[in-house]
Amino acid sequence: MPVLERSALADSPLADLHAIASELGIDGFRRLRKEELIDAIVARQGGTAAADGAAASEEDGPARPRRRRGGRGRARDRDREEDEREEPAKPAPRAKAEPMAEERPARRERDRERPERAKPARERGADREGGERSVEGVVELAENGSGFLRLGKDGTPSDDDVYVSAAQVRRCELVDGDRVGGPLRPPRRSERYPSLVRVDTINGRPADEVSDGVRFDELPAAFPTERFAFGGDDETIQVVEFLTPFGRGSRVTIAGGPHTGKSETLRRITQALAALGEGLETSVVLAGARPEEIAEWKANAPSGVELAAALSFAASSDAQGQAVERAIETGKRVAARGGHAVVLIDSLAAVPLAAARKALAAARRIPDGGSLTVVATAAGPLGGETTLVALDMALAGERRFPAVNLLASRTLRPELLVGEAGAQAIAEAVREQAG
Fold it and tell me: Residue 53 is part of which domain span?
């Protein structure tokens, strides 16, 4: 292996320094910072480059003290360090020098004789093409925060998929279903998939433009005007649709005591939303659920509906709140980019009150943009709902389902969803029940 000067080592990415340290047999090199790793490599090579580096340092004068960074600076540094580990840039050219005396002749001979066909097919293709090759695919996120670009037309996993680092996912706020484009690098010796070097486009727009957009909480909110027209013969859905209507951007609470049918009502609404198939990103969060209910959801989840989290009542309230918050944040990103997301939560009674109100308040219709709809069960109204579906214990005790109490239920500005005639019909039904 040639003796490398300090300047050449300093210009090399961290992954290349790790490879050099491994060949030199340096113990514990992965725990060293970059400067410490360079010192160790120079020292192992015999100190020649170290002397050169020391002389240059003396000529330049004393090192300037490093300024302390605040929280944002440290966060950016962490992302850059992850990028160096997960998505290193092109290696810098190494300095030419005489070979080390201890380099093994057999290894040199084996490297010269290694046939081109021994390289992975994707790597050979990149060598022939030269430069960066760009791809575009649909993002599918993993539980650890990283993801893959699915390049096939049907979005199914394949050997041609491209790895996306967790740092890139966080920096660009990528969500499932985003169409992302950018250059890739071939897989290294220990990797199975090629990796995305950087994100250039998101859903056909420059990544910088999408990432630097207005924050979701600063976007304008408007009352929902597009009702979910479910249809079908399900009596529960018919009552909700015509007497307590809601639409894209609604904040909906299904409120009632134990055994009034809250979870069953939410389940039927989920099935009705899945049947619409109108470009909705629909996800469900089970918080404080019974183990049997979790098993049923996993076994019978409607097609196109994601079970974002499922925690039983044994989990802490903080864990329940975090699960709800993650699903809401994903829905926000979908809505901010012009999509339509629905998050269904069973139940907000399992999370701290502040977290429950924050989750419900996130729902909105963005004028000339996307929408986030939140439908959640709770023991009672949380305040701020645009639609409240109140279930009655007495009606449920008589097994009269759906046990909707129209006197306690309401939809704010129903005429925007069902017109003046529909709003009048709701008022007449309430008067009849009041009787």
Answer: 6-59+75-107
